[in-house]
Each structure stands twice: as structure tokens, then as C-alpha cells.
Amino acid sequence: MPLPLFAFLAVAAGVATAFAGGNELRLSPRHALLTSTFFAFACYLGLLLVPASAYFYIFHGDWFLLYAFDMRLIPSAIALVGFMLLALLGVLGFSLGAGLARSQRTGTGGAAIGVCVLAAAAVAIALRDRLAMVGSYAQYRGGFGLEPYGGTLLQGTLAMAGYLALGLAFLLLKVRAASGRA
């Protein structure tokens, strides 16, 4: 999964979690970022989404960055800031979803999630040539030694996508159940 897909997933997951915890958000006078719904989402971000993106950056970095940058030249502090920005995108998605959930604008929230999913699909389709080949930045720029998508990258993609999907489903179900009791 390349970086843009993680960014859209973070926003969509934030909006979806806020809607799943809509009862708590509507009933609580606290700021949305101080609710138990946000705490659960922050755990998802910190324990699944950001580490999964770090996996791709560490083991398949040039592909993860869509060959836009040579990852060997990126200082680790800049990469750390990038992962923090990814988490911040999730927080912004949650804040957007919380505002929509509190005002009971479910159609707009569903549209926001749909836009994120469509944007992620558009990125994957538009950049399928880059995603179909695996190698280093130099190999991609030079047009040599690239291998077709598969092997350990495919296994990692399937595993991480599975963990993220199961984790998000569990998060949404638990938040929804807890919010129903509120």
C-alpha cells in the first residue's frame, strides 16, 4: 500500500469512527478529542495504521513513496514527521466526522468516506504503472532491474491490509456498541 492510500484510509477511518461513536459525541459536552471514542481511534492509529505504513516505508520505501523520492536521501527525522502527519490526517478526519456526527449530517459523512475511497482508487488506477513494478528509485528512474509486483511485497500488502481491515472492523463494532450504551 503506497503512502497516498494510507492517507486516504486515515481520513476515512477517522470519519467512520466518529460516526460509529456518534451517540457518545452527541451526548458528551467534552471536546471530541477528549472522548473515549477518540481514544479508541488513537489506539488504532498508533497500533495499526502508522506501524503498517512504517513497515512499507522501511522494507519497500521507494515503492511506498511511488518512486517520487529516493528514500535513502530522506533523513529519518523527516520520515518520522511524515508518520506524525499521517496520524494527524486521521485526527483531522475524526474531527471532521465528529462535527458531522454532532450535527447529525450522516449523508455528508458518508459522502466524505466515499470520496476518500474513490480518491484512493483513483490514485491506484492513475499510478498503476508505478505500483506494478518493484525496485529501487535508481532502478525505476533508469528503467532496469525492476520486478513485477509480487513476492514479499504482495505478501506484506495482503497481511497489512488484512490487519488494517480487521482492526478497523473491530474498532467500529466496539465503538458502536460502547456508544449505544452511552
Which SSEs are present, and which pair or pack?
Elements: H1 3-20, H2 22-27, H3 36-64, H4 76-102, H5 106-126, H6 128-131, E1 133-134, H7 137-142, E2 147-148, H8 151-181
Antiparallel strand pairs: 1-2
Helix pairs in contact: 1-3, 1-4, 1-5, 1-8, 3-4, 3-8
Describe this structure in words.
The protein is an all-alpha fold and 182 residues long. The chain has one domain (3-181). The chain is built from eight helices and two strands, in the order ααααααβαβα. It has a two-stranded antiparallel ribbon with strand order 1-2. The longest helix has 31 residues, at 151-181. It is elongated and about 60 Å long.
Spans of at least 5 consecutive residues whose pLDDT stays below 50 are: none
Q: What is the first-to-last residue Cα distance?
A: 36 Å
Number of helices: 8
Relative strand content? under 5%
Number of separate strands:
2
What does the main sheet amount to? 2 strands, antiparallel
| Residues in helices, as a percent range | over 70%
Please list the strands of the largest sheet in the order they lie side by side. Answer: 1-2
Overall 3D shape? elongated
For the structure shown, list the relevant keywords.
8 helices; 78% helix; 2 strands; elongated; two-stranded antiparallel ribbon; 182 residues; mainly alpha
